[in-house]
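Give me structure tokens for this 294-residue protein.
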Amino acid sequence: MLIARLIADPDRLETRLDAAISALAEKGLRVASAALLEKVKDVVELTLPEGDPAALLAVLDEQFEPADMLAANDLITVPHLFVSDMDSTMIGQECIDELADYGGLKDQIAAITERAMQGELDFESALRERVGLLAGLGEGAIDQCLAARIRPMEGARTLVATLRARGVRTVLVTGGFHHFADPVAEMLGFERVVGNRLAVGAGQLTGGLVGPIADSGTKLRVLQEEAALLGENALTLATGDGANDIPMIAAATYGIAYRAKPKARDAANGRIDRGDLTSVLRLLGIAQDEWVIG
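Here you go.
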């Protein structure tokens, strides 16, 4: 059985849904039922006896873009584990780019960040190059940047708080830095943080890192290790936006690309392109009156 859930423009929903069902039939994907969820009225659930989630999502993209959607080979329900990227997913900024602005290097570093997120550069070498450019920047710039620049993505607090209220384990895992990730995790309510550590000496960034690199492999391992602790049948949710998130997103039961780069989006069985992070709750079938407002 193949299940898909969709949040789209309500003014075009009925006509586009008919077109989508016809387009799916042409590809050999028969829709057995299509109806609004009883508890979450703006979410359409499609049920197919069988089929490929990627093919289903491709048709829904063609018919409804921009939309929020999730496809799975079983009933969609609240997961046991939530693992998320931080920059441009749980917060609206790329921390290293904003920090670089305090050293007059934002454009130079942001260009490297963008290429790494698109999957055009090796993550570790790109990270070390950017961190190296920050050598000599005062450590106090981090606190200034946190206070002045770093803001949660819309819906982030409510997403985390609602999942935690339902007993979901929450983990923030980032290719960014603990200097930012620790306060962000505290602000949003994550239970565990995994990230990189900036080296500091004499009150300045040295241009180096301390300890092993947290990269795409780290994100995947964290997802797998945390899921193993919860038991063999643990359902997992992962969110991210860049190439560094692809292994984690692809391995999760529900891998949701949030306003993501193309390669990350293609690896996901869920996409948020229209709404904010509370769309994840809607797609999981959690009605708005059951949200915990963070």
